[in-house]
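Action item from last week, closing it out:
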Amino acid sequence: MIITLVGGGSTFTPGIVKSIALRREELDVTEVRLFDIDKERQDKVAVVVDWLLHEDLKCDIKLTVTTDPETAYTDAAFIFAQMRVGKYAMREKDEKIPLRHGCVGQETCGCGGMAYGMRTIFPMMQVIDDAEKYAKPDHWILNYSNPASIVSEACRRLRPNARIINICDMPIAIIDMVAAAMGIKNKKEIVYDYYGLNHFGWFTSIKHNGKEILPALREYIMEHEILLPDTYMKDKAALAANTSKGNRHAKGSWYYVWKGVYEIMQNFPDTLPNTYLNYYLQQKEFVEHSDPNHTRANEVMETREKNLFEGIDRYLETGKIEENVFYAGSHGDWIADLAVALKNDTKTRFLVITENRGALPNIPYDAMVEVPAYVGKDGPEVIAQNTIPLFQQGLMMQQLNCEKLLVEGCIEGSYEKVLQAFTLNKTVPSMKVAKEVLDDMIEANKDFWPELK
């Protein structure tokens, strides 16, 4: 039983491998393979992964580290894809170029998300093709690579028969915060309904042991004016202690994101919004409190990235790994649990990105939507949701058409269609600004994007 991690040099790799190893009996896993085109970076990350598997957890899972696709994929049962094409250097440009033009600077939303998406589409097709060539016939690709909505639309268009499930852990991170705020110790006791596009959706029900807790959660958010647990907010020391243990969603600029949940629900209280909706519904405000010279990319490079690689160097010098060297938590647990459900046919409930096919009755049949599904050996069995209210439907259609135009423009090499996508995006104030941002993005991405004519 072989699991391959594409993007083996990611800072998330040790945490994901830990989640796999903790489920080694459920997965019957015998080998984990790390695959990346950046050998130097991956070799460093592999030092921690090797320590984790063979010294910390003391398990006999074989570790293979490679830059060769055939070695990476041959006979693999699962491929976990977590690519960041262009690494953090390009993420920084994704965030800072739009801000220079007064637009939201964010890695998966707005112009930055579209730029990142266009870098990722064709490398993801290569992953699918290589897996098809070398992996087991019944393999599954579980894709974490962002921006998942753009990547999933490209997969639908270019590789409709691929054995791929696109997922995102942000709704799970939100549920983590909900559980902490509501004093729920076992988040697996929570069942929720949700609909939307990736990074663009709403929770319509959140139940704990069968009891609806969304009204109580709403009261909590209105009282505290933020969706963060009391324990995080008592003092700065408590928040710092929490973030030092690896909660990447509760530090720096994330504060405004959790504050934004309160601000959205002041006006639209019936549902709990995905935090990423802030960038679309409060684009002006988020630009105003952004620092165009120091964005979240810088925050990550100064914390998670720095901690990991400095920690590796210290380990090589001293033989000791410190607690905050790598992030482990819901991110890895989510994808490993999904693999368990597929392998063991558990019909466990997950949130997945999948072709709509009527699950949301007033959204196009071929839209790639994010909805709950029961997952077994044959993949997701989608749970149909109710008709989407006009406000949410209108927002979704604007974003959906933006993403479809972007994918079409990328595939066809059409400058006009990509410009239409940038113009249609709700984070962009005008056609003129869309063109200015796009032209800057073309220059920044000349080594990654197809030529646009």
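Closing note: Residues 241-246 have pLDDT under 50 and may be disordered.
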